[in-house]
């Protein structure tokens, strides 16, 4: 029986176009100024230190780090340091009402139903935990944070590594066989399956012919009774 559902965000709960056409450009436009003006604030200094460690640029100047961050954005790199900085910048955007977090119409009703059934809900995204709570806290469907029991980002490990799913299962104290992972990316689902998790692939755009996972187009096509043995 499924005791917990862990969901990805981009392409699963939320439209890729919101992330790529709204969130990423908003952060890109403010990145250099944020780093230059706030380099000594604790949270920015920590993110920059994380970037120095990630890249081995131990003595890099702010300008060199900014250049690295802009390149990482161009490459859509799932760098933990970049994701921390993006989350900090998006905070202002959500608080100012510049945008709300996109969630597909089927998401909030089905999450609510799963909670009613006693299933615990978690998020695992490459976006930082702050970015995740901002998106769901300021979503177009209202504040969805009460639905979730916890959040995981790449500090637990990369999404295509099965060790990350073992680590999450340990943290939520469940065997993999009682956890369902929802994602649009079959390589992430492969890694979860290798850790013994159940999987469903969300197809919010074109089908994925290379995938071995059961595909659905909406959350309400997922029936947890199918997982009962
Ligand atoms: C938390 S919203 C921003 C998402 C993001 O930065 C990203 O890289 C998308 O990653 P996901 O693992 O949700 O596909
Ligand atoms: Mg995704």
UniProtKB/TrEMBL annotation:
Q: Does the keyword Metal-binding apply?
A: yes
Q: Does the keyword Magnesium apply?
A: yes
Annotated metabolic or biological route of this protein:
Amino-acid biosynthesis; L-methionine biosynthesis via salvage pathway; L-methionine from S-methyl-5-thio-alpha-D-ribose 1-phosphate: step 4/6; Amino-acid biosynthesis; L-methionine biosynthesis via salvage pathway; L-methionine from S-methyl-5-thio-alpha-D-ribose 1-phosphate: step 3/6
EC number(s) reported in the record = 3.1.3.77
The protein's annotated catalytic reaction(s) are:
5-methylsulfanyl-2,3-dioxopentyl phosphate + H2O = 1,2-dihydroxy-5-(methylsulfanyl)pent-1-en-3-one + phosphate
The record's InterPro entries line, in alphabetical order, gives: Enolase-ppase_E1, HAD-like_sf, HAD-SF_hydro_IA, HAD_sf
According to the UniProt entry, the coiled-coil residues are: none
Q: Give the range the annotation lists for the signal sequence.
A: none
Q: Which domain of life is it from?
A: Bacteria
Protein role: Bifunctional enzyme that catalyzes the enolization of 2,3-diketo-5-methylthiopentyl-1-phosphate (DK-MTP-1-P) into the intermediate 2-hydroxy-3-keto-5-methylthiopentenyl-1-phosphate (HK-MTPenyl-1-P), which is then dephosphorylated to form the acireductone 1,2-dihydroxy-3-keto-5-methylthiopentene (DHK-MTPene).
Q: Which family does it belong to?
A: Belongs to the HAD-like hydrolase superfamily. MasA/MtnC family.
**What PANTHER family does the record tag this protein with?**
ENOLASE-PHOSPHATASE E1
Its assembly, as annotated, is: Monomer.
Q: Any idea what this protein is called? A: Enolase-phosphatase E1
Q: Which organism is it from?
A: Affinibrenneria salicis
